[in-house]
Amino acid sequence: MDGVHDLGGMHGFGPIPYEKDEPVFHEPWEARLYALRRALTVPMFATVDEHRYALEQMPPARYLGLSYYERWLAVFQEALVANEVLEADEMRASFEAYEANPDAPVPRRTDPELTARVVAAAFRRPSVHHDDGIARFQVGDRVLARNIHPKGHTRLPRYARGKQGQIANINGICNLPDAIVAHREPEPQAVYSVRFEAVELWGDAAEPNASVYIDLWDSYLDPAVIE
Predict the structure, then answer these.
(1) Cα separations (Å) of 125 from 121, 128, 185, 188?
(2) Which end of the chain is flanked by fewer CB atoms within 10 Å, N or C?
(3) 91 contacts 80 by C-beta, under 8 angstroms
(4) Nearest-5° Cα angle at 164, 158 to 169
(5) Sign of torsion, CA 210 163 189 3?
(6) What's the pLDDT tens digit per position in 43-65?
């Protein structure tokens, strides 16, 4: 997507902070939200690609003003309303009630069948690979990432568009995320690990002798013209 959500390679955000001995979660609510995400992703979003696309629909100012897990929370709140699980007024009233009385007990509902389904979904790892499909490129081939500017979701970051790289590995045949979020027919394509020299991506400002590997679908690539 061409938007502020594609932060890779963008300037002006300062260095990435490094926290020694960083905990998995900084606050208890983040751990609870992660658990809710595992339980809610299946009914709320058919695929992880649709979850990413929902994040990309957030207005830029709001997206940048929220932390990583706050973005998840906002997306799931909107999905619960959109899927008619809760009404917006009902959710707002619940928030206000717990703000006024944070020690109030949380309602509980026992549903062993639903619990079993959620647990099974959380630990299931369905294969996303297909047996059909042909890889146009082979390991070692030079390729050019297409300079495309789609309105919808894409896994081709802007900083790599129009840049040359080399096929480092063929990861298999997988459905194109761009087609999934657009609700088109499945488009299985070869997915490659493409190695880009850092200097190719960022010129003289790049770290010397560094490279970046990006997983890219077949339709994102063209053969490189070797002069």
Answers:
(1) 8, 9, 22, 18
(2) C
(3) yes
(4) 95
(5) positive
(6) 666 677 888 888 888 898 999 89
